[in-house]
Amino acid sequence: MHQSFALKGDIIFSQTPQTLAIYPSHYAICQDGVCVGVFAQLPEQFADIPVMDYSGKLIIPGLTDLHAHAPQYAFRSLDMDLELLDWLNTQTFPQEARYADLDYARRAYSIFAEDLRRSATTRAALFGTLHVPATLVLMQLLEQSGLETLVGKVNMDRNSPDNLCETDAQASLEATRAWLAGCRDLKHCRPILTPRFLPSCTDALMEGLHGLQQETALPVQSHLSENQGEIAWVRELCPQSSGYGDAYDRFGMFGGERCPTIMAHCVWSDAEERARMKQNGVFIAHCPQSNVNLSSGVAPVRTYLDEGLNIGLGSDIAGGTHLSILRAMADAVQVSKLRWRLFDQSLSPITLPEAFWMGTRGGGAFFGKVGAFEAGFAFDAVVLDDSDLPSPLDLTPEERLTRIIYLSDDRAVVHKYVDGRKLF
Ligand code: GUN
Ligand code: FE
Question: Which of 226, 292, 295 to mutate to test the pocket of ligand 1 (most atoms within 8 A of CB)?
Answer without folding.
Answer: 226
